[in-house]
């Protein structure tokens, strides 16, 4: 595989992993579905054009959001005669709040993964079947030989223990 192909493949992989998050970010800044879609087209193109300058040692999502932020500003300026927009200060506040939320989400997700490892195999199996695989509680309960109510109660206790564990892990980090 040539270096160009590897570069293209890496870009597509990173963009695919972050595209939904990027769209949510752009939408949060525009609060307009059509504008967000149009800006995302520009974002994809600009990210590809600037991908050679991306530092792999840094998070792709943060780099892509920075590029997106400036494209939202440019879009707003371009369309400012057509519509009223929030002041740039409000846009910065939304962006900062979004960034804080992303950081907290990542931290809580990592904590949850650690906490899931602490479950017994049986507990993890119930969680996987009922939440990851979306199997019906009635079907899982039948296969486990318990009532639906008993399974729901077990899942409630597991969720509570995971919630407590995530809080402890996040607090300690």
Automatic annotation (TrEMBL):
GO terms for biological process: DNA-templated transcription initiation. Coiled coil: none annotated. SUPFAM superfamilies: Sigma2 domain of RNA polymerase sigma factors (SSF88946), Sigma3 and sigma4 domains of RNA polymerase sigma factors (SSF88659). One of its GO terms (molecular function) is sigma factor activity. InterPro entries: RNA_pol_sigma-70-like (IPR039425), RNA_pol_sigma-70_dom (IPR014284), RNA_pol_sigma70_ECF_RHOBA (IPR014331), RNA_pol_sigma70_r2 (IPR007627), RNA_pol_sigma70_r4_t2 (IPR013249), RNA_pol_sigma_r2 (IPR013325), RNA_pol_sigma_r3/r4-like (IPR013324), WH-like_DNA-bd_sf (IPR036388). The keyword Transcription regulation applies. The keyword Lyase does not apply. Residues 109-162 form the RNA polymerase sigma factor 70 region 4 type domain. Keywords: Sigma factor, Transcription, Transcription regulation. It holds the Pfam family Sigma70_r4_2. Residues 16-69 form the RNA polymerase sigma-70 region domain. NCBIfam families: Sig-70_gvs1, sigma70-ECF. Belongs to the sigma-70 factor family. ECF subfamily. This is RNA polymerase sigma factor. It comes from Bythopirellula goksoeyrii.
């Amino acid at each position: 595989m040539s270096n160009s192909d590897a570069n293209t493949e890496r870009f597509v992989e990173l963009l695919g992993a972050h595209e939904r998050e990027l769209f949510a970010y752009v939408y949060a800044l525009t609060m307009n579905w059509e504008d967000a879609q149009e800006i995302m087209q520009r974002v994809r193109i600009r990210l590809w054009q600037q991908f050679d300058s991306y530092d792999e040692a840094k998070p792709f999502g943060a780099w892509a959001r920075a590029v997106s932020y400036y494209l939202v500003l440019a879009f707003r300026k371009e369309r400012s005669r057509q519509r009223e927009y929030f002041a740039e200060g409000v846009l910065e506040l939304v962006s900062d709040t979004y960034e804080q939320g992303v950081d907290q989400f990542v931290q809580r997700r990592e904590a949850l993964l650690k906490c899931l490892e602490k479950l017994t195999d049986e507990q993890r199996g119930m969680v996987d079947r009922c939440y990851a695989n979306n199997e019906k509680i009635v079907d899982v309960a039948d296969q486990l030989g318990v009532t639906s109510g008993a399974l729901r109660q077990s899942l409630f206790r597991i969720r509570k223990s995971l919630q407590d564990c995530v809080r402890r892990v996040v607090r300690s980090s």
